[in-house]
Amino acid sequence: MGGYTTSEIATIMAMQGIAGLSLFGVFLLMALGLAIIFGQMGVINMAHGEFLTLGSYATYVVATMFESYAPGLFSYYFPVAIVLSFLVAFGVGYLLEYGLVRHLYKRPLDTLLATWAVGLIMQQIFRSIFGGRGVSADAPDWLQGSIQLSQMLFLSRSDLFVMCIAIAMTVIVAILLYRARWGMRVRSTTQNRAMANAVGINTAKVDRNTFALGCGLAGIAGSAFTTISATTPTAGAQYLVDTFLVVVLGGAASLLGTVASAFSIAQAQSILEFFITGSMAKVLTLMVVIGIIMLRPQGLFTLKVRQ
Amino acid sequence: MLKVNDLSIGYGLSQVVHDINLELGKGEILGVMGRNGMGKTTLFKALIGLLPSWSGDIQMGGVELTGERPYRRVASGLAYVPQGRQVFATLTVEENIRTGLEATGQKKIPDDIYSLFPVLQEMRKRRAGNLSGGQQQQLAIARALAAEPDVLLLDEPTEGIQPSIIKDMAKTLREIRQVRNISILFSEQVLSFAMDVSDRVLVMDRGKLVDEMQGEELSEATMAKYLSV
Q: By the CB < 8 Å criterion, does A184 face chain B?
């Protein structure tokens, strides 16, 4: 392959595989919120990327505040930023569901257009407040530098951090969805909203909290995102299509599918990138994903039950 | 327990149910009989709040329910088993029953549920969508009973169920009344089932209640003009 020896190919695969792991972390974090909003609730939230951006800006603001008012505690700003990013995105998501989305549950195309418009409005608000150029917070010391895995292989601490957050969030969401009472309410409401209401579940409240939680998760993704890239008003929107593909390929209602799909897409993209250009790698990956979805519209992981 | 006054319901501009008046006593099993398309399901959906009523009112133990959302009606003591069962297919049997606990806020499934429906205990970890029609009907009733209702609404409980299971279901309904001391209102087309369980029957024809008879008065002869018997 291209004049490389077998050992060189192995090293390249390992390097690109590690790079793919950080992309996996970003995809997974982004996709988790959407797996709830689109996968569980069936709402096509085109503003999902903007909730990532919102979380990134919230993190930037927290970092700036710590730098100005408590420089001695700067190393510890990140946990505060993650919680605040979640709360801000959760709050805005809650208001968006209450003010707009709940009126459009039976009108998916209108939801698509309306949330797309909300995304554009949010982008403009970010531009007006923070400007069009990227802003970035300094990473705390413990997130800087790399860990050497072998002579040729390095894993940056920030990539490792993003991956750890992604995995931790996945575990928390899995427990919430499949072990907690809240998850039972969500799964029954999304499966049959009218019947869930008729067995005694306050479905309007479930919808509002579920949508807000999905947005909050995007906020956490945004917070993690600041460690690997600068934040611009359109930072989150760039990942929107990839994120939808991750959720659809995995199987809309399957969390395990979302993890498997984020991993496969990230690895395919990262490994192909070395041998062909980045954009061609993306084209090729997307074509394969589209091919799979055409053959298996329900996604890779689905539950088979008698209806 | 349940009192309905002059209830009218419709879809769009067409009225389907006209001025229904009924009263269900404590511990009574009351049937609403009628052919397909006579408005039985529309009436039951309006009682639980899935359809808005045009006029009239619904009361439970003197408390006004008209205009309340379905989940609030369940909290007030009404529980609903819909036509076609509508269990949550991807949830397990146990999770389906637990959805019924939401109305009371209880954490524990009432003990009598598994003794009324032993098959559900055996299958509690199975997905509801993989159960047979008869088992799904039992699950739908168990889910409704988990809400500890005073009144149980059953919309065509025998639809799609094989005859031998229909007999068992009639027996179970009588047992539920005995164990829980609750009232049951059901809609039905299967005469033998209604004869097995009803204390009293109302006949519905073209959206109106047109006749009333006691359980012992029910026969093929008395119901022939209302049902295809």
A: yes
